[in-house]
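Shipment paperwork, digital attachment
Item: protein structure file
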Amino acid sequence: MIRKATEEDMMFLFDLKNQPSVLRWSFNSNPVPLETHQVWFQQKLHDPLTALYVIEESGRAIGQVRFDREKDPNSPAIISIDITAEQRGKGFGKKAIVESLEEFFREHPDITTVAASIYLENKASQGAFARAGFSVPTVCSKHPDRVHMQYIRSS
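Attachment content:
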């Protein structure tokens, strides 16, 4: 269900990012021009501080999970997830979060904490993260329209 993103995923991720249901919950809700996405995609795909995964179901791409981390392994990695509008509400979010966490921790054994920042109104996303083992949501002090959830790997 989870695999590393490749060059061939660029257009799928472009289309996914620009879906209205994805833009609705993105912190930058403006549509992304193709040229901007191409530059972003190449940077993320080759950035050693980013892990970019594609979610698949029956061999078809249905979403993405991304982890962005700092150079300091004591800083939490930040997770984000997007799923196509047609596949939302089918339980793929929790499965993708769990599988990507396992893969990410395998690849980065020095990282112990992953954090998610989610809009307060996005109860479905909060539910998926909670079912995947993330903490109870707490309102962000800097962004009161968002909640913070985190996952701490057990040793």
